């Protein structure tokens, strides 16, 4: 075994170890250091000097020995040395109670008489602060905020021997941020809070509070966005800086008033046509309001007010889109509900009423903006209301009462707003009622008086007689008028219409009218025989039968016929007659017609005889009915015709030369200046014989059988 080493020096620099120094022992390869505390041993193998025994108790007196070791074994322990371990280091508890202070505390250290604590910025700037104390805590003040400090502390014993030291790095808490600013970004309900960075601050916390509501934003930068703010609210914003030492004091609260909420309880009404009133409830933090009104044709107007209502001009038939915004210094409120308001459709224009008949009017108008359909009402004096609804711009109102004023109103109707009840009515009067003809009477030849019932004082009445002969009219504002110069023998249909500024009535019911038949224009009397006269006439328009009459003081001759001629017998010759004719229609209407008087021819003579004269002559003799009448005698034979006319007042005449041996027809007839020779006087036949070359006997043979018509 090697020799026993000799301890030259033993000491303790750490509370858990003792360091031993010795001279090297030849042949020794290792050394074993032993620290004994009562029955407790701690061994440590080392290679050479110095060597340290660890794992010891602080502030404990140990007996230190050393043995040398080689392959032959261990030497005997060296003489011991008594060495006491130094004090243990105080275990520090450090925090920064404020931004400019650090508080240090520790537990009591066994055998410690006092403590020494030093503090210095970790970056080496500034001076070191050192404090000796017998207490177990102390506070360093007036430090730099947010700065990292290195703290070293150790305890010493009664001999002033320092023990182990304890080093701790501690940062002061940061100072409160400064220059805090609040702005809105990316939306009126998102706030951007910014500040100047605080020294030593690692993170920041922004607190936005309003009543019981608190919003937080944590960040490591010098700004923070706080979303989800509520409109019409006032928030108080503070910023706290943080680091590993703690937090700063919150900054003084900065007031933040958000944008106002969108106005509510918006109402829109037309207080009068053409004026829109928009009103709403007052909004907290709303300093003023702007109302935007945009019509469906793209025109937009706005109103800026500090009140809660606005007036706008409006046009009929438009849809307006209305939005209300509130404003304050923070900006514009969010978009609320967009209201649309459709004004009543425009009232129809270019109103026209045309009567199709007396009880039917067709109403037309120009189409108007905003109208989906039209409702037409006609209110009459009796309260009767006629109604029609249609999408067309025309309406036919029928079954109207004649001679009645109506207020016709065309209302435009829309699905959104309903009916525009402000449309003005149009006054329309219907045409007069149809007149009723009460009586038709004849006032004279071709003059007819018509009487009707008048029902309209403003009306003019037109009476029309219509027939094949044409049209005849008379006009009156009263209740009667006279139709003049109606042609005879004609059938008419008489009707009446009433005319007024409102129009023309329907025709009245027609009343038949027949004028008396026309008198024949031409009437010819021809005496057929001495007692028979033939009367012929032209056709009288409208006449079916005729009654002709020849009348004289001596008597009357009459005939009734459907022909246009008639034979009248019992005519007295040489008599003046009045001639009349009555034309009678199918319905019994009669026209009395008078004509120029008629004189029958003079009476034929009687007692006509032939007497032979000497020298081949013949005398014709007769008895005259009137000595004032002149006669003419005609003899007709195969050998010649002979005639003679006596001197006035004589009743015979002579024919001086007449052939004998012939049969003669002898006629003696009155002579008239204007009438043709009469052919109806009796004809007698005589034979004139010859006596030699002269006239012999005259023999009566009888009357002629010839017919005279």
Automatic annotation (TrEMBL):
Residue ranges constituting the Fibronectin type-III domain according to the UniProt record: 1-88, 89-175, 176-261, 262-346, 431-518
CDD domains: FN3
SMART domains documented for this protein: FN3
Signal peptide segment: none
InterPro entries membership: FN3_dom (IPR003961), FN3_sf (IPR036116), Ig-like_fold (IPR013783)
Highest taxon in the source lineage: Eukaryota
A Pfam family matched in the record: fn3
Family matches, as PROSITE patterns: FN3
PANTHER family: FIBRONECTIN TYPE III DOMAIN-CONTAINING PROTEIN 7
Name of this chain's protein: FNDC7 protein
Organism from which the protein derives: Dicrurus megarhynchus
Phylogenetic classification of the source organism: Eukaryota, Metazoa, Chordata, Craniata, Vertebrata
Gene coding for it: Fndc7
